[in-house]
Amino acid sequence: MHTSSLQQNILAELDHELANTRKMLERVPFEQADFKPHPKSMSLWQLATHVVNLLAFKTLFVQANSRDFLDPNAPKPGPTPTSKEELLSRFDEYSTILIEALHSSNDEKLTNHFQLHRGDQILMDRPKGAALRIMGLNHSIHHRGQLSVYLRLLDIPVPGFYGPSADEAGGF
Question: Is Metal-binding one of the keywords (predicted)?
Fold first, then answer.
């Protein structure tokens, strides 16, 4: 009987979700970067950039043991991309770094805890693998879902992720 490791499972899930996320980002129209479906919403470009920058956060879960939001020396994402090409280039770069970090890790390291805090306030304390799935993958999938609504409202065909979308043959 063959058993998959935690690391292998995360890599397989990540491979699938990264491909879907890139399909979505390829459709984001830079010329409508300021679009907001509601005053409380992020702009289209802020949301797309956040989806990309979350990849660096996922890498942090794998490579570090903690992150303090109040630490002025903590790693920060680069400046906001100024074109779709720049956004996709950052996505590809951050994806590669994350995959390499996961390949350099192992199941034992992924069961070590990662702590997210703001000064003395602990926001999250979970095994790295769980942090990666909950605050990394699930968080990204949530925001990708928001992006799909933005695209729908802009009348841009939404790609299918787990089967065809309503914009593709056989979709519903």
Answer: yes
Domain count for the chain: 1
Cβ(148)–Cβ(24) under 8 Å? yes
Q: Residue 161 domain-assigned? A: no
Q: What are the tokens at 109?
A: 């390291």
Burial class (CB in 10 A: 0-12, 13-18, 19+), 52: buried
Domain hosting 10: range is: 6-153
Q: In this structure, is residue 169 part of a structural domain?
A: no
How many angstroms separate the first and last alpha carbons of the chain?
38
Q: How many CB atoms lie within 10 A of CB 44?
A: 23
Contact 96, 14 (CB under 8 A): no
Instruction: Name the amino acid, one letter, at 46.
Output: Q
The tens-digit pLDDT sequence of the chain (172 residues) is 455 799 999 999 999 999 999 999 999 999 999 999 999 999 999 999 999 999 888 888 899 999 998 998 887 878 899 999 999 999 999 999 999 999 999 999 999 999 999 999 999 999 999 999 888 889 999 999 999 999 999 999 999 888 888 888 766 6
The CATH number given to whatever domain includes residue 43 is 1.20.120.450
